[in-house]
Amino acid sequence: MSPELDELYQEVILDHSRRPRNFGELADATVRVHGDNPVCGDEIHLAVKLGVDGGLEDIKFSGHGCAISQASASLMTMKLKGRSRAEIVTMLQAFHALVTEEAAEAPKALGDLRLMQGVRKFPQRVKCAMLAWRAVEQALRQTVGEVTVSTETDLMA
Amino acid sequence: MHKLPVSDVDWKVIRNDFPILARRVHGHPLVYFDSAATSQKPRQVLEKVRHYYEYENANVHRGLHELSSRATEAYESSRQRVANYLGAASADEIVFTRGTTESINLVAQAWGEKFLREGSVILLTEMEHHSNLVPWQLLAERVSARLRFVPVRDDGTLALDQLSSLLTPEVKLFAFTHVSNSLGTINPVSELCQKARAVGAITLVDAAQSAGHMPIDVQELTCDFLAFSGHKMCGPTGIGVLYGRGEILDTIPPWHGGGEMITSVTLEKSAFKRAPHRFEAGTPNIAGAIGLAAAIDYLERIGRPAIFEHDVELARYAMQRLVELPGMRVLGPPTERGALVGFVMDAAHPHDLTTFADRYGLAMRGGHHCNQPLMRRFGLPGTTRASFYFYNTSEEIDRMVEILHAATRFFS
Question: Which chain A residues contact residue B407 at CB under 8 A?
Fold first, then answer.
């Protein structure tokens, strides 16, 4: 077996891709973001309910994609629910570093998301892992309404 | 040049001409099943290009020195070589471009803007690569023309029964692919060209997936334009061809302006050379054209009928073996297909499957293959595609099936 594959597709990741958590519709969402990765056709529909303080009260996603994009979205929604805006921005940056930078030390705050570190050995798969995060980033920026974001547009500031 | 009889080709020996096929990837022997994206290059082509740069390099059509004459002769004899390869009436019908995409854009921009007007219809098919779709969308936008599409049936073939109702007198151009890059379907080019001609439409054939794989005679096919890339047929990247029937090519105004394409220039205006030089502004890809001619020599020595026979056999064997796998769906027609197989498996998304295979040295392509509308037509986000060429073997297909079995176990 290939150790890189085992690291990329850890059991927890495969489990989340097969049975994604927070999957479905959010009736009282304040903002909806449709994210797509035109390179591989993956799509995510993210529904977010932001509180008056800008914090993330609830989050759900739907769509289809590879194991990496599905697991990343599933793990992300579990981690971000109930977080403040500032916490989410910090986590977004930490996650991006986790999947792109060889030397990045995985902060404990990322919890199970740290299992996605294997992505950094597969540069072609970074966009898969980042798709849901790009969508949530756009949701924070948007704060209300409906918008589409693509992995091919400019990445985080 | 000696041509081997079809069945006598020793493919194992030919494989040795491709140095890259001996390498390992991620510790495994490379199985290169991505020739529809770009083919590998034989030593004969690599050496020819290297020889040109080491001993003959000079600019064409302008130097009065010995090397420039040699380079010009090599460049223009490459043009003749391409003309012969395609059965064109004259080398003047061969325009060198960067590749299929540029060839199609040349027609869409230079020919299209002169001859299409508001209400003109451009007929395409649902199976076109983005390179034979987007240039026409841009043109339609500019001249207020309309696009119309021949539908694709569930079995991956064109709905030819609808052709007569689609080919109305407003259709000025019918552009279609010879071989589908994701379904493998081989379209009946000659029949399509004749039907288009009957209503006065010009035809353009995207031969990117066929030019290096099967015999092509533009006069037999009766197409007006034909486009292909050198890099998919053992040649270098950055060189391609637009074939245009003489009487049509000569009516097209210049496209890019610059040196090489003019006869005289004043500060106010210029007079232009005839086709094909009118369309080759600036220093061309001389080494590319020489490399392409070397690739043609190489392919012709093996023989296109033999290459096509080997292609068909590999595709047939791949289809036969792939259906052994659980949850396997192969796209495209069961027969009459080119050297590629697109498929999806229940066990894993095409992206995961392709990543997995890569770790075992198996290079395939996963995704929409620049065929987004076609993928939508089949309700798929994408497929995994294994594409073959004459240097591939049935043992490599066995290896692919073995790896896909392992992937099934891994992901389920």
Answer: none
- The DSSP code sequence of A86-127 is HHHHHHHHHHHHHHH-TT----GGGGGGGGGGGGGG-GGGHH
Rounded Cα–Cα distance for residues B220 and B53 (Å): 37
The answer to whether position A117 is within a domain reads yes
Cβ distance B367 to A40 less than 8 Å, yes or no, reads yes
For B27, the closest chain A residue by CA position comes to A2
Joined together, the tokens standing for residue A121 give 């050995």
* Total domains, chain A: 1
A40/B360 touch (CB, cutoff 8 Å), yes or no: no
User: CATH code at A102?
Assistant: 3.90.1010.10
Predicted-complex ipTM score? 0.87
Model confidence pLDDT, tens digit, residues B338-388: 999 999 999 999 999 999 999 999 999 998 878 888 888 998 888 999 999
Q: Is residue A154 part of a domain?
A: no
Q: Which of A2, A40, A124 sits opposite B382 (nearest CB)?
A: A40
B360 touches chain A (CB under 8 A): yes
User: Is B223 considered catalytic here?
Assistant: no
- Give the residue, A46 or B7, on which the prediction is more confident: A46
Q: Which domain holds residue A134?
A: 3-149
Residues in chain B closer than 8 A to A3 (CB atoms): none
In a domain, A157, yes or no: no
**Residue ranges of domains in chain B, CATH in brackets:** 6-32+304-411 (3.90.1150.10), 47-300 (3.40.640.10)
Distance from CA of B208 to the nearest CA of A (A): 21
What pTM did the predictor assign? Answer: 0.92
At residue A46, what is the residue type? L
Kindly report the nearest CA distance between residue A38 and chain B, in angstroms: 9
Is residue B142 within 8 angstroms of chain A, CB to CB?
no
Tell me the C-alpha distance between A11 and B408, whole Å: 15
